[in-house]
Write a structure and sequence with these properties.
- With 116 residues, this protein is mainly β.
- It has one helix and ten strands; from the N terminus they run βββββββββαβ.
- The strands form two sheets. Strands 1-9-8-7-10 form a five-stranded mixed sheet, covered by helices on one side.
- The longest helix has 12 residues.
- It is globular.
Length: 116
């Protein structure tokens, strides 16, 4: 599955939301993708097109223009039958450090983060 977005929106630790880490984006077609995790939980919530699923063991790879989210085949229903979501983004280079910190907070102990 593929998605194109203008930019990734990242919050490494939202004080107003019990320190939740959140990464989200909207496609040019109106689709919404979001990853969230509270620091005291062992699972990640993935929301695709406004439908949430709880996952563990996902892998996320970040580069300057691409975010690849890979999930277990058994969890493919979270992405409407696909086991990955390939996001092309145009996030400013100055914002990528915050995106990276957010992904590290979300995946720590629950998944794999790769910087490409």
């Amino acid at each position: 599955m593929q998605l194109t977005t203008a930019h990734l929106i990242a919050t490494p630790c939202d004080d107003e939301e019990d320190n939740m880490a959140m990464l989200c984006c909207h496609s040019d077609k109106g689709e919404m993708f979001m990853l969230t995790r509270y620091p005291d939980e062992n699972e990640v919530e993935l929301t695709w097109d406004y439908e949430p699923s709880t996952l563990d063991g996902l892998k996320v790879t970040l580069s300057a223009t691409r975010l690849l989210v890979e999930i277990a085949a058994a969890d493919a229903d979270a992405l409407k039958g696909d086991d990955h979501l390939d996001i092309t983004h145009h996030t400013a280079a100055s914002d990528l450090a915050e995106v990276e910190q957010t992904l590290q907070n979300i995946l720590k102990g629950t998944g794999t983060y790769v910087r490409a």
